[in-house]
Amino acid sequence: MGNDMMEAYLYEMNTLLESLDEMVLGAEELKTFSQDDVNEIFRTMHTIKGSSAMMEFDNLMTVAHRIEDLFFIIRDKSMDVVPEGLRPELFDLIFKAIDFFKTEVEKLENGEALTENIDSILANINSFSNKIQGKEAPEEEAAPEEAQSQEENAAGDFGSADFPFGIQVFFDEGSGMENLRAFMLATSVKEVCEEEGQFDYVPGDVGANSDSAAFVVEKGFVLRFLTSELRERALAVVKDAGSVADYQLFDYEEPAPAPAAPAAPAPAAAPAPAAPAATAPAAAPVPAAPAAQAGKQQQNHSKESLISVNLSKLDELNAVVGEIVITESMVTASPDLKGLKLDNFTAATRQLRSLTDQLQDVSMSLRMVSVSATFQKMRRIVRDMSKKLGKEVNLVLEGENTEIDKTIVDGIGDPLMHIVRNSMDHGIEERVEDRVSAGKDPVGRIVLSARQTGGEVIIEVIDDGQGADDEAILNKAIRQGLAAPGVDYSHKDILNFLLMPGFSTNTEVTEYSGRGVGMDVVKSNVEAVGGMVSISSEKGFGMTTTLKIPLTMAIMDGMEVSVGESVFTVPINNIRQILKVTSQDVIHDATKGEMIEVMDNFYSIVRAKEFYQMDSGIDEFDDGILLWVESGENSFCLFVDELIGQQKVVVKPLPDYVNDYGIKNYGVTGCTILGNGDISIILDVASIYTASHSAGM
């Protein structure tokens, strides 16, 4: 089985399941499936069934087939066939099936063995199917007669006086190689029959003739036995056999004048829900196939302009574009060209710069995806936890069309899931009475929002729960050895304990928390993609967790500045203004700190030379440059020697052994290669602010 086929299968499955999950969530809110929803589920399961059969994942194919059969009934009879009292059970059933498929896909992605026993989920589907079929009042009385007539057809077509006790077996639709499946079943049955000549089967040449597969598909595979006891033994084998969609028993009777057999549809067992699709090709696939085909044609029409590309190829493209950007800088900034007046060359390099900018923008846009899919997954988490915890909560999504780099979106999925679970588990109050007495809506509210600001995206998870209890957090931090007793910690310091390793406010292990995975993991995961996490909360008024993450980590606009012999790069998105000031403009505060007034506000000054303890560099404000920079809510002025100029830079990560020294805490986020081949350190404005102000610079 080729990797390409497996990748295509996994991509299709993930896409279908995400879409299905979202659609079922929306339908559950309306407490019913529309006819379009029913058709969509039917088509989706038809697709999953076919794809899984092609990949020979029999259990996935079987589950999809059973749900397809269930929705064939609903599609044929409309949602009226499902009473309102049974609809919550239907939604739970579909969610369990989606979870089953997701789990199996995850196993395939991790190279693990697939689930072998699917009896439980099949029993649930069959049970529900029987319930809704039992509600069909007009046909309820006729059902036993219909089953009896089908049984009579089987007896009439395949009954034998020599072997009067029969079983007619139908395999899963689309399972393939039905003749071999039938032969293997016959071989298994032979093992439970003690002597030769105690049974036979029709068609008798299934082991040697592939043409017999068509007969088995249309009329089933028939096993006939000498005694009813032998049939009972064989029945146990049939029940355990893989890919068996349905079976029925029949006994031989002397033929009597009866309506001609061709008038009846292909035999099918009444009780099992699989019968319409598995046993009546003329009844089920004929109406189903055109609808499924129409759905495929519609999908092809709407997606014909899309193409799926492996992410590694986009990574490779970005790497090449990055090298082009660096090489272009090396050519245009070559020291060999200094002092030369080259008008044509200058015009050509200007055009080259424009084209490389366009190329970079296009290559970056290829990796940008909306956070919508990640946000929608949170709806499912809130829905499941609401049921299990007995809390009624509304999830509000805002800005879900905001786009971020694909790698970063993947990196924030787990952190967001953990934050939302925290809000559900011990953010929203346990008792509705507590909310009402606090003047809140009885229904809890969690807001998940995303918005783009310059070169970063702000994602917030806001709940209106009980908020953080400073005293409880501090006591827990002291017990964990994270805080010193007797120290007067600020509210902000206490909230920061929540982000420390090993900290958890839960006093007991639940399904959702208390398993050693705390907010520190969220923090490290977000920082791994170049972001930062902050928490704000007020007791009784909920909590807000904010993630600030970069749009991309590959290429950015930077301002190159010099300090002594070194060159630093400051992200353009962090620069608000460039200032030329004199020593008289600088204000000294009581702690000998330096400040500057800009637009009626005072901002502290951080000297890059002193911050990095460099030997060379300018000390006088009259000779240098101030960069007014900001990150989030923090603003300050960075004093450097001079500006070199704006440049597109390719962000290169620092080696792990350098990161081990914690330099990220001192304003260093990465590096880039300059046009002349030198390395420039990329500064992290937020980290400089934190380090300099905590040190009192």
Please give a structural write-up:
The chain is α+β, with helices and mostly antiparallel strands and 697 residues long. It is 47% helix and 20% strand. The protein has 23 helices and 22 strands. It has a six-stranded mixed sheet with strand order 14-18-19-17-16-15. The protein has a five-stranded mixed sheet with strand order 6-8-9-11-10. Strands 20-12-13-22-21 form a five-stranded mixed sheet. It is elongated and about 115 Å long. Residues 135-147, 257-304 and 507-517 have low confidence and may be disordered.
Helix fraction bin: 40-55%
Task: Look at the helices and sheets and give the structural class.
Answer: alpha+beta
How much strand? 15-25%
How would the global form be characterised? elongated
Strand order of the largest sheet: 14-18-19-17-16-15
Largest sheet: 6 strands, mixed
End-to-end C-alpha gap:
62 Å
Mind sketching the topology for me?
Blueprint: H1 3-30, H2 35-54, H3 58-77, H4 87-109, H5 119-134, H6 137-140, H7 142-158, E1 165-171, H8 178-192, E2 199-202, H9 212-219, E3 221-225, H10 228-240, E4 244-251, H11 275-279, H12 285-303, H13 311-332, H14 343-367, E5 368-370, H15 372-389, E6 393-398, E7 403-405, H16 406-427, H17 432-437, E8 444-453, E9 456-463, H18 470-479, H19 491-496, H20 519-528, E10 532-537, E11 543-550, E12 555-563, E13 566-571, E14 575-579, E15 586-588, E16 594-598, E17 601-607, H21 608-611, E18 625-631, E19 634-640, E20 642-650, H22 656-659, E21 668-673, E22 679-683, H23 685-694
Parallel strand pairs: 6-8, 13-22, 17-19
Antiparallel strand pairs: 1-3, 1-4, 2-3, 5-7, 8-9, 9-11, 10-11, 12-13, 12-20, 14-18, 15-16, 16-17, 18-19, 21-22
Helix pairs in contact: 1-2, 1-4, 1-15, 2-3, 2-12, 3-4, 3-5, 4-5, 8-9, 8-10, 13-14, 15-16, 16-20
